[in-house]
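User: Sequence recovery, please. Input:
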């Protein structure tokens, strides 16, 4: 019994050492994450191997693992002040959808570090937005060119960061805010242009209606001329005889006076 404490102390110490070793040697990487291995005695950041994937891993206790979120993420850059082509100050709200390139995670960690968004993405998006917006007038930014500047900012940002181990999936221009006086002037101009278009539409519609009526009238006049030319006295007399024959065959009471009408046509007298 007296020897138990002497035996138990080393065992306890061994268990503690094992627990410390396990805690230092094991790492669990969560969903949508990847790990970059840093070898303290073996060359530092490992860049020539695939990053550690999701799940449980055992590493040497003197090494480290830096965990990155490799899912698509978003950062929002609001109230970004830029200048239009004529020097007016414009405020942009921009969102960027991005993620680190999985296969290049080691190089990203080695060259940029965990703070790569602030080091690379934010400065790039600001510089590109200023460059792109500077090509357009406030009127274009406010109305017709929103999609164009969004696409240009996206394409130029992708070109600038693709070699820096970052993947940009989309750039979304959430809002374009102009100075109030400029905004009101643009809205007045747009209303006037719309009113002018409506006026031109009404004029064109009236012209089309007048042309339709002219064509219709000419058609009727032509038809009347053709009809008048074809109605000779002989044709009228034949039509009258046909009508008289049909009427004489009806059961209604009537008196027919032959040869008493105009052109020698019968006169038909009915009781009612």
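Assistant: Recovered sequence (272 residues):
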């Amino acid at each position: 019994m007296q020897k138990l404490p002497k035996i138990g102390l080393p065992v306890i110490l061994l268990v503690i050492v094992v627990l410390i070793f396990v805690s230092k040697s094991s790492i669990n990487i969560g969903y949508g994450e990847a790990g970059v291995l840093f070898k303290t005695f073996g060359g530092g950041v490992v860049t020539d191997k695939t990053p550690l994937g999701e799940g449980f891993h055992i590493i040497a206790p003197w090494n480290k693992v830096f965990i990155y979120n490799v899912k698509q993420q978003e950062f929002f850059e609001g109230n970004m002040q830029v200048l239009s082509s004529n020097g007016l100050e414009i405020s942009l709200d921009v969102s960027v959808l991005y993620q680190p390139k999985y296969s290049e995670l080691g190089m990203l960690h080695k060259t940029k570090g965990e703070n790569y968004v602030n080091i690379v993405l934010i400065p790039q998006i600001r510089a590109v937005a200023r460059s792109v917006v500077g090509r357009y007038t406030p009127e274009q930014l406010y109305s017709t060119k929103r999609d164009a500047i969004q696409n240009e900012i996206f394409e130029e940002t992708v070109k600038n960061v693709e070699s820096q181990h970052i993947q940009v999936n989309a750039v979304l221009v959430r809002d374009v805010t102009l100075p109030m006086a400029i905004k009101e002037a643009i809205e007045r101009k747009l209303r006037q242009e719309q009113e002018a278009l409506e006026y031109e539409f009404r004029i064109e519609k009236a012209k089309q209606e007048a042309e339709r009526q002219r064509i219709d009238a000419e058609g009727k006049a032509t038809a009347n001329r053709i009809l008048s030319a074809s109605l000779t006295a002989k044709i009228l007399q034949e039509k009258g005889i046909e009508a008289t024959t049909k009427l004489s065959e009806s059961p209604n009471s009537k008196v027919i006076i032959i040869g008493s009408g105009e052109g020698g046509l019968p006169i038909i007298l009915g009781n009612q």
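The chain is about 50% helix and 25% strand.
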